[in-house]
Write a sequence for this structure.
């Protein structure tokens, strides 16, 4: 009886405890940054810059937030506690059941039976949970559902199945258990080298960090985990200092403050970093919100009203809201972390205006000068005690390309903000308040490029580029491929050609509306063998798993962009390859690129030239179709424009053509249309066959584009045929050799060393040729001079 009474009481106690915990969490959540967490109290000033790098020319079209996981986060507070309470309740219930069993005098067998049932139930629950996770993953991949920043309590059960010993490599980094839980969920068995190096400095020593490491090496978590770690430590410290009466100091209990501001150069990157941090913060209740152009300011303001601790944004929209006086964004006194991701991109020409303005909004760290107080006028006035020491993190894969950068940082020169332009990475870091003792972690190797990246090139004439591109995509079209162009015109040209050739491609460039940009990425991400044709807007930061190949259709203007473009493949622990299409005009640019990566050898991409006649035949048809279609749409657009203009001016358009001209026009149109139909049909028939090398024998069905399914069907057909003609006559037998679409990396690896091109040799040859030309020129000059003198002599004699 006594036990029955206590059973009834226990759940109530749990509820009460959970309520207390929830209040505590709210209080801790609202606490300010604890300045004692940093090691020293040195003065530092903060100057940062940002700029809307991609957004200036885009329409600020509204996008459906929920579609892209940008919905206003529901208050996550409490779900963790709920989970815990639920779990505790389960434990209590199980205990009670056991106790009940004993109290009721049930036999051991009966108790065991109950135990078995509970186990079975647990198993079923686990299975359901697994199914749910899979479903969520699919939904997320399709962009259907918002991914929760915080999981439900069931994660506790999931964690039970984690073998923590597999994650021992993380132990030395002493991360908070809630962060480790996220790492288990992410299945990151060990920290990447940049994470290993940055976490102790950023999280435990409270240092500023300049981090440079190859593309895809996990830099986001290298700054993300220290931020979350310190916020969690701070929260726990405050929890320990909770006044005994449990009453909250009203000032301290003010709603969530902005603690970390992360600036990225592109919108897509901001959204990606947000997602990544949400995953890492899923157990710790911190809210991460993206603030980017391309969605309505009102919606962003609504997002900010939820008072997220971490904001990730692009400079343009951030500055727009800050200068508009958004309360959450201007309360910068609470800011403890300022991050510049892809920092070197931030300072590129014409992009730093907003960045500079944001920097100037940041209150100075601890010096309370007149200037400071003036600078922070726009911010909420706070006591000097509340002034926080900010940590500054500056990250990129290509920082180290700025030769003097490290030297200057080590000198610790700290210039004033006044009159400084944010035109170099050095100035940017100084203005961002980088302290002299900042940890400078440069893990880039001499070549800067990702370790597992294999690079290659194809040297070709300008007019053959399209053919080689089509060849690579159809003969080696395995895995995801990104084709980079420097101009939107080139992007439009090749995407149109490839579509005519029956290759499905998605495009991404800065003149697209934001919705379309995100959709293109989503679709590309969702297709195992997808092809994305992109400008350099996609060069930085985009983390799409399974990108196997990067093709440089046009060479980029700088070595940095080449590194970032190529870095879309060979990310994390995967490998990948890049192929650059080099025309004679590009050779010197390419040689300069190789020089900046300290590379002598570059591999030539292996080509099976017997495919090329067929490739060129198809391409020629596609070009003709493209030309006719373009002309047609241009004519239509011109006609529409004329009609619209006339309508606006209330004028009547007169047709001045004579009858004869009209008839001729009509005939021309008809002929063009017939020509178009013929070309399309011809191409269709070519495309219906697999792309075959010239040496193709009718007895063998082979070629690129034979899918495994088609190959199976054809093999089956061949078997049927041969069994029907059991008295097989020579020549009638058909053999199917499916062209196993070999992915470019595989082709490159099996190509052998003879395809290597020695750039040193190339450079020497070029030097020899230049020298030869110079000598020839000099000889010519000398001969001309001699002839002139002889002529003069002869004239003098006469
Ligand atoms: N410790 C880890 N173990 C395995 N994978 C990881 C780890 N940390 C991060 N990753 C994964 O590696 C991929 C690349 O990470 P991230 O985007 O942070 O790289 P990055 O260095 O910022 O690249 P970039 O320079 O191109 O922006 C991501 O998919 C991320 O989930």
């Amino acid at each position: 009886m006594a036990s029955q009474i206590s059973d009834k009481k226990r759940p109530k106690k749990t509820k009460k405890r959970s309520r207390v915990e929830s209040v505590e969490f709210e209080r801790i959540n609202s606490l300010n940054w604890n300045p004692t967490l940093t090691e020293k109290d040195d003065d530092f000033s903060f100057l940062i810059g940002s700029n809307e790098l991609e957004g200036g020319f885009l329409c600020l079209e509204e996008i459906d937030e929920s579609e892209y996981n940008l919905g206003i986060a529901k208050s996550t507070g409490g779900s963790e506690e709920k989970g815990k309470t639920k779990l505790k309740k389960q434990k209590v219930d199980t205990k009670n059941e056991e106790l009940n069993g004993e109290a009721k005098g049930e036999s051991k067998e009966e108790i065991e039976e109950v135990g078995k049932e509970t186990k079975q139930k647990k198993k079923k629950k686990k299975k359901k949970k697994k199914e749910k996770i899979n479903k969520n993953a699919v939904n997320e991949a399709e962009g259907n559902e918002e991914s929760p920043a915080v999981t439900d309590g069931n994660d506790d059960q999931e964690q039970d199945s984690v073998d923590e010993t597999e994650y021992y490599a993380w132990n030395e980094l002493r991360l908070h258990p809630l962060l480790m839980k996220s790492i288990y969920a992410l299945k990151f068995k060990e920290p990447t080298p940049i994470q290993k190096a940055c976490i102790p400095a950023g999280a435990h020593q409270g240092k500023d960090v300049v981090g440079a490491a190859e593309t895809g090496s996990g830099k986001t978590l290298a700054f993300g985990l220290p931020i979350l770690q310190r916020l969690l430590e701070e929260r726990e410290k405050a929890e320990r200092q909770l006044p005994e009466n449990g009453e909250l100091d009203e000032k301290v209990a003010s709603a969530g403050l902005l603690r970390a501001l992360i600036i990225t150069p592109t919108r897509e990157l901001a959204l990606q970093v947000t997602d990544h941090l949400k995953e890492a913060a899923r157990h710790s209740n911190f809210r991460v919100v993206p603030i980017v152009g391309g969605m309505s300011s009102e919606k962003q303001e609504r997002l900010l009203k939820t008072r997220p601790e971490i904001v990730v944004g692009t400079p343009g929209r951030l500055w727009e809201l800050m200068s508009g006086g958004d309360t959450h964004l201007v309360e910068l006194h609470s800011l403890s972390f300022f991050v510049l991701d892809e920092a070197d991109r931030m300072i590129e020409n014409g992009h730093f205006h907003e960045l500079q303005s944001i920097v100037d909004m940041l209150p100075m760290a601890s010096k309370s000068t007149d200037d400071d107080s003036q600078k922070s006028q726009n911010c909420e006035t706070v006591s000097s005690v509340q002034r926080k020491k900010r940590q500054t993190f500056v990250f990129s894969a290509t920082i180290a390309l700025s030769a003097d950068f490290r030297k200057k940082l080590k000198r610790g020169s700290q210039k004033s903000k006044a009159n400084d332009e944010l035109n170099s990475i050095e100035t940017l870091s100084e203005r961002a308040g980088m302290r002299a003792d900042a940890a400078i972690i440069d893990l880039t190797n001499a070549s800067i490029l990702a370790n597992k990246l294999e690079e290659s090139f194809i040297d070709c004439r300008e007019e053959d580029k399209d053919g080689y591109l089509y060849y690579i995509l159809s003969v080696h079209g395995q895995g995801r491929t990104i084709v980079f162009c420097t101009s939107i015109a080139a992007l439009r040209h090749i995407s149109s050609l490839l579509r005519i050739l029956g290759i499905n491609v998605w495009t991404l460039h800065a003149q697209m509306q934001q919705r379309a940009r995100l959709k293109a990425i989503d679709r590309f991400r969702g297709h195992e063998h997808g092809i994305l044709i992109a400008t350099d807007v996609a060069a930085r930061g985009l983390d799409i798993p399974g990108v196997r190949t990067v093709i440089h259709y046009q060479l980029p203007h700088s070595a940095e962009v080449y590194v970032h473009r190529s870095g879309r493949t060979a990310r994390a622990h995967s490998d990948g390859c890049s192929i650059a299409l080099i025309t004679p005009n590009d050779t010197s640019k390419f040689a300069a690129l190789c020089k900046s990566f300290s590379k002598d050898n570059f591999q030539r991409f292996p080509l099976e030239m017997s495919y090329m006649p067929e490739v060129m035949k198809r391409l020629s048809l596609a070009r003709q179709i493209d030309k006719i279609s373009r002309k047609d749409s241009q004519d239509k657009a011109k006609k529409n424009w004329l009609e619209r203009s006339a309508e606006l001016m209330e004028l009547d358009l007169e047709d001045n053509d004579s009858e004869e001209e009209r008839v001729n026009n009509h005939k021309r149109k008809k002929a063009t249309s017939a020509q178009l139909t013929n070309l399309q049909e011809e191409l269709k028939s070519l495309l219906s066959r697999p792309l075959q090398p010239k040496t193709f024998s009718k007895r063998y069905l082979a070629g690129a584009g034979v899918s495994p399914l088609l190959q199976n069907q054809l093999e089956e057909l061949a078997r049927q045929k041969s069994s029907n003609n059991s008295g097989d006559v020579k020549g009638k037998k058909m053999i199917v050799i499916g062209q196993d679409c070999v992915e470019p990396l595989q082709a490159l690896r099996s190509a052998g060393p003879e395809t290597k091109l020695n750039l040193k040799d190339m450079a020497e040859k070029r030097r020899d040729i230049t020298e030869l030309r110079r000598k020839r020129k000099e000889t010519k000059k000398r001969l001309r001079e001699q002839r002139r003198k002889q002529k003069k002599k002869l004239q003098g004699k006469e």
Observations:
- The chain has a mean pLDDT of 72.
- Residues 188, 191-192, 195, 215-221, 397, 541, 543, 567, 571-572 surround adenosine-5'-triphosphate (CB under 6 Å).
- The first strand starts at residue 209 and ends at 212.
- Residues 759-797 form the longest helix (39 residues).
